[in-house]
Fold this sequence. Notes:
Elements: H1 2-11, H2 22-48, H3 53-72, H4 78-100, H5 109-119, H6 125-144, H7 158-205, H8 215-232, E1 236-243, H9 246-253, H10 255-273, E2 278-283, E3 286-292, H11 296-312, E4 314-317, E5 320-323, E6 326-332, H12 338-355, E7 361-362
Parallel strand pairs: 6-7
Antiparallel strand pairs: 1-3, 1-6, 2-3, 4-5
Amino acid sequence: MGLFRKLHAFIIKESPFEDEANGLLFLMRTVLVIWMPFYFVMGIYSLISGLGIKPFLVFFTGLLVYGGIFAETYTRRSQRCLYYLLVSATVITGFLTIVFGWRASFQNFVYICFLIVWYDPTTGSRRKAVSSIFMAVSMCVISYFTPFGQTVLTPGTAPHFIVVYSNIILFSICLSIVAYYFCNQYIESEHKLREYNSRLKQIAETDPLTGLMNRRSAEQEIRVVVKESTRLKYMFCLAIGDIDFFKNVNDTYGHEAGDFILQSLAEEFKNFMKARGFVARWGGEEFLFVLPRMNGDEAMAVLDELRHIVKNKEYVYKEHTIKLTMTFGIEEFSKISGVEKTIEEADKKLYLGKQNGRDQVVF
């Protein structure tokens, strides 16, 4: 297990170039780490099984070349190493195909490099097209010099079974690794995109100071309530709440204290409105309250309860204890008047409450 960890750490060692995408390097190293032992074992097997010196020489040449490319991944750029791998794999597997015959399936390993080239996001379309042409020409050349559909290995013998099935298994493993890598890359990119879009949506819909809905978001939510109330035929109310003498808080204790008050009240409002409706920051020290399935009298009772909660609570900022009151203006939604007019009427009632001494709910 310790050896596996060391190998894994060695494979995922980052590129010396800061602007490089390390994923491509990790993938190439993984494929090479699988190919090199395979070539070593097959080279030895070629000698002891009597397959001849030619396969042995090709296997060990391939082992040296792949070992060199593996070492290069720690000092050179990934794209250059990738093209080294594509060319060398085409040449080496081409010789092995010619030596063993087409049905031995060595030529399939060219497709692994080809897939890596095409799935690499840093490679341009022109280079990918050139790689495709190179691979197509190479496969035609290999097939020209190889009896198509034949193999020098006698079917049913141990060498035939070992060489052919080892190739199939190794090709399947490499194909799975490439697919796994790019599937993970896609899922990770998709996850990041969704996360990013979610953050953008939250930024667009949320007041950054209080964490409540902002004006734009509240307007969208009200439209939903309007449609639902029309369909299900229920009443709802809109209310504007304003902190009394909020300017005095900023002037006396500073703007940071004012921000603290807004944040504290926002948390209070969120908890209070959970089962009753929703609240948004409408602007400055004003908050919009949406109360579905309530008429004016019911909404008045609810907001009067909230008014008492705010009035009776002490807000401690640093060494200061701050007491607050709020004034609310409520208006029942009218389909004839519309949302904008309803809010305007609620705002007028809020202003009336301010004129009449504050700390009250006006309906």
